[in-house]
Design brief:
- With 369 residues, the chain is an alpha+beta fold.
- The protein folds into 3 domains: 145 residues, Probable tRNA modification gtpase trme, domain 1 (Gyrase A, domain 2, 2-Layer Sandwich); 84 residues, Aminomethyltransferase beta-barrel domains (Alpha-Beta Plaits, 2-Layer Sandwich); 86 residues, Aminomethyltransferase beta-barrel domains (Elongation Factor Tu (Ef-tu), domain 3), CATH 2.40.30.110.
- Helix content is 20%, strand content 33%.
- A 6-stranded mixed β-sheet has the order 12-13-14-11-5-15. Strands 16-19-18-17-20-21 form a 6-stranded antiparallel barrel.
Length: 369
C-alpha cells in the first residue's frame, strides 16, 4: 500500500488514475468513486462483468491450537461447521448484541482468514486481540494483501484459461488456493453485488500482472473497472448491509434481519445472552425495505413517518438503475415492517409516499448458489 500525507492508496491507484476515475476519500483510502458513470458501471455488472478494487478491506490471519474455537466464540455464525475451502458471512457482536462489524471467515488448511470492513480494521483487530486466548496467533495481513473482485454474469468467462478449471467449478462461498494469471492467490466465489463472481487475494507486488491480465482477458466479455458508486447501488438492490449505515454498534443482527447468521445452538459466543433475551422479549424495531414512486430518493438520516408521527429512520437509499425506481432501507417500529405497509419519508417539508417491500429488491442476478 502507498500512503500520501493523509490517505492510503491501494496497489491499483495508478491504474485508477490512468483510467480517468474520480478519486475520493473512503475509509482512509483514496479510492475510485466512478470511471464513466455510476449507472453505466452498475449495468456493466448486471449485464457483463465489472472489476472492483477492494484492496482497502482488512485481512487477518488467525492460527494456532484453538483458532477455530476462538473465532466461533467471537462471531454469531458457526465457524466450527466450516469445511476446509469454505467461507461464511457473520456479524461479530458486543456483549450487548450490538454489531462490531460484519465480516467473512475463510477456513484454510492451517489457519483462518478473516476479512473485515476497511473503516473498522483497526477496531476489529483490537477487539479480537483483546479477547484472544494463549496459543492463538492473530496477524494483520491487510498491508500485504491485494484484493480484486470480478462480478457479473460473464465473470467466469473472464477468468477461464487464467485459473485452474476447478476454480471455475467452485460453489458459492467456496474458495481455492491456486494460480491466477501466473500469481499464487486465494480465489473465492463470493461477492457483494448479487451476481456471480470471484474475489482474488494475492501479493500486492503482483498488482500489475493481475490487473492488466484481467483487463486483457475480459475484453471479449465486456469487462470494465467499476467504482464505489455502483458498488453501493448494486449491494442495495440485493439488500446487503453497509456497515456504518445499516448496521453498527447500536443495532443487533436480529433487528437487521440477519437472524439466519445467529446460531444460538452452537454454544457460547459474545453477545449470545443479549440476543437470546432480545429474541424472547420480541423486537421493537426492524430493518425494512421501502419502495417509492417518482424520482425522489430516500437519503440516510431521513425520518420515516406513519400517521403523522416519526416511526423510524432511513439508513440507505438510492435510485435503482435496474428497477428504475427509488428504494431504501431503514429501521421502523416492528409492526410497521410488514410487507405492503404504507409509510412516508420526510424530505425537508415534503413527505414521500413509500411502501414496505421484501428484500432483496432485485432477485434476477446471476449469483451461483
Amino acid at each position: 500500500m502507498q500512503r500520501t500525507d493523509t490517505l492510503k492508496r491501494t496497489p491499483f491507484f495508478d491504474f485508477h488514475r490512468e483510467a480517468g476515475a474520480k478519486l475520493v476519500e473512503f475509509a482512509g483510502f483514496e479510492m475510485p468513486l466512478r470511471y464513466r458513470g455510476d449507472q453505466a458501471e452498475h449495468q456493466v455488472v448486471r449485464e457483463r462483468a465489472g472489476l472492483f478494487d477492494i484492496s482497502h478491506m482488512g485481512e487477518f490471519r488467525v492460527a494456532g491450537p484453538g483458532a477455530g474455537e476462538f473465532l466461533d466464540s467471537m462471531v454469531t455464525n458457526h465457524v466450527l461447521g466450516l469445511e476446509i475451502g469454505q467461507a461464511l458471512y457473520s456479524p461479530m457482536c458486543r456483549e450487548d448484541g450490538g454489531i462490531v462489524d460484519d465480516l467473512l471467515v475463510y477456513r484454510r488448511a492451517d489457519s483462518y482468514l478473516v476479512v473485515v470492513n476497511a473503516g473498522t480494521t483497526a477496531k476489529d483487530f483490537a477487539w479480537l486481540a483483546g479477547r484472544k486466548p494463549a496459543g492463538v496467533t492473530l496477524e494483520d495481513e491487510s498491508e500485504a494483501t491485494a484484493l480484486l473482485a470480478v462480478q457479473g454474469p460473464r465473470a467466469a468467462e473472464v477468468l477461464r484459461d487464467h485459473v485452474p478449471a476447478r476454480v471455475l467449478e467452485l460453489g458459492y462461498y467456496r474458495f481455492g488456493e491456486a494460480s491466477a494469471f501466473g500469481v499464487p492467490a486465494l480465489i473465492s466465489r463470493t461477492g457483494y453485488t448479487g451476481e456471480d463472481g470471484f474475489e482474488i487475494y494475492f501479493d500486492p507486488g503482483a498488482a500489475a500482472a493481475v490487473w492488466e491480465g484481467l483487463i486483457v482477458a475480459g475484453r471479449d466479455a465486456g469487462l470494465e473497472p467499476v467504482g464505489l458508486g455502483a458498488r453501493d447501488t448494486l449491494r442495495l438492490e440485493v439488500g446487503y448491509m453497509l456497515y456504518g449505515s445499516d448496521i453498527d454498534d447500536t443495532t443487533t443482527p436480529l433487528e437487521a434481519g440477519l437472524g439466519w447468521t445467529v446460531k444460538m445452538d452452537k454454544g457460547e459466543f459474545v453477545g449470545r445472552a443479549a440476543l437470546a433475551a432480545q429474541k424472547q422479549r420480541g423486537l421493537t424495531r426492524k430493518l425494512a425495505g421501502v419502495s417509492l414512486a417518482g424520482r425522489r430518493v430516500p437519503r440516510h438520516g431521513m425520518a420515516i413517518e406513519s400517521g403523522g408521527r416519526a416511526v423510524g429512520t432511513i439508513t440507505s437509499g438510492t435510485f435503482s438503475p435496474t428497477l428504475q425506481r427509488p428504494i431504501g432501507m431503514g429501521y421502523v417500529e416492528a409492526p410497521l415492517a410488514a410487507s405492503r405497509t404504507s409509510l412516508e419519508i420526510r424530505a425537508g417539508e415534503t413527505k414521500l409516499p413509500a411502501i414496505v417491500v421484501p428484500r432483496p429488491f432485485y432477485t434476477g442476478g446471476s449469483r451461483k448458489s
